[in-house]
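Posting for a labmate who doesn't have an account.
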Amino acid sequence: MKKNLLIVVILAVCSIEMVKGQTVADSLAIVSACWKIENFQKGIVYKYASIPQLYQGPQSISLIEIDPVAGLKVGVAVSDKMKETSKIASEYNAIAAINGSYFDMKRGNSVCFLKADRQIIDTTMQSEFKLRVTGAINVRKGKIKLIPWRKQIEKEYEGETGMVLASGPLMLKDGQICDWNSCGANFIRTKHPRSAVATTKEGKILLITVDGRFPEQAEGVNIPELAHLIRILGGEDALNLDGGGSTTLWLSGASDDGVVNYPCDNGRFDHAGERKVPNILYIH
């Protein structure tokens, strides 16, 4: 992580003007952090950093980097009833997984567009379009694209076989910060635990969680801060997923039943606070 640090720092500093509100110190904190790095298997690298001062508070960041060249594929797994991310991932024989998009916590269904092959399972609620849904995950033959999404696209969407899961906001596209003016200001600016998926210029996939709601260990981030973090980590395209208590990153073979971040739904800074969700993004 610290190789060629000077070059990375220079690039990071040069990119600051593209993400308003973040500082040179934030960029330096990310690239100079003491990252724990583990190679779990070919094509899968796990990274973790606890940074005492980033975005005006302590941050706990977990990252799984996937290299599709190793023959790994992406999938969207849908459960017939809400279950923990770790359980859905195990049922699908996943190698790695992250929680999916937004859902109705009482009914258990997605409130965002969800399509499996040619079957449309759910559509995006108008309130979600107004609040945050501006992007989608498009998976076809195990390959992922992060695409813009809006009501008109959804109405006219006649994609080929594959899976589509809407979420948002879309944070980065082709390395550039996206426009969030159509999203709810409070959602964009309030710090929360966050989950995201990103792709790099080299074609790698990043599954990222930033823990939150633990003032002394993990404050959480807002959308501009998350976009900045992912850009510094090399993301070209990036999509925000469901966050808050849903934020969970899972890796097969890791301790604590594979949960590598610190989900907050139990109110304790440990690995046992998973929330039940209806869908996940997984690697197999």
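Reply:
Got it, the structure tokens are right above this. The chain is about 20% helix and 35% strand.
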